[in-house]
Amino acid sequence: MTRARLGRILALIVIVVLATRAELAVGYKGPSPRLVPSIVLWIAFFAYWAYASRNSAPTQSSESVGSTYLHQVALGIALLLLYLPVPGLKGWFIPERFQFAVVIGGIVQVLGLLLAVWARRHLGRNWAAEVRIGVDHELVRTGPYRWIRHPIYTAMLTMFLGTAIASSQYHALLGVAMLFVAYIRKTRLEEEILSRTFPTDYDAYRRSTWRLVPPIF
């Protein structure tokens, strides 16, 4: 069993325990009907990701299990916050009567899903769930990588934002914020390991691209 897989299993156990306790605490009775399209899109995303992850090169060097575990737990909790009505955060940042938010959120989420698939196809065997360098690793600069250094994370943030818009409740915004912080940490780790692996090329690449959110940073 790889370290990344062990980290994901441990993270899943923690997330399931937290989700169960949280559901009991808030009396959660399932997602709102307005979130059903969002859930379908997430299922499609994870199904594609599971299929695409089979094409991944062996690991040459990577972050620690603890670091992988920390990120997976943060990602899982952020995802739960999109749907779980947290006490004190059940208010509506978009009024509940504005049903057009569901349509807008769905469109944003679809755009994020398409960006994720586009980026994943260009990244190919270089992709991994953990921060790592694979055997015969390549510095990909095609597709969305021409402009964004971490377009898959940009896509995930976009999908989270789409779900938050559809939800229109503050707890979902907290999930987006939590994922953003997690990706700031993960991109810093990735850029450190890529700079060591491609000392000249990566520095030039970093100067000519955005990290996550063009044209902000």
Q: What's this model, at a glance?
A:
By secondary structure, this protein is mainly α.
What is the arithmetic mean of pLDDT? 86
Following the backbone from N to C, one meets helices and strands in this order, namely: HHEHHEHHH
Shape estimate = elongated
Q: What's the total number of strands? A: 2
Question: Roughly what fraction of the amino acids lie in strands?
Answer: under 5%
As a whole number of angstroms, the C-alpha radius of gyration is 18 Å
Query: Helical residue percent?
Result: 55-70%
Explain what you see.
This protein has 217 residues and is mainly α. The protein has one domain (31-64, 87-207): Four Helix Bundle (Hemerythrin (Met), subunit A) (Up-down Bundle). 63% of the residues lie in helices and 3% in strands. A two-stranded antiparallel sheet has the order 1-2.
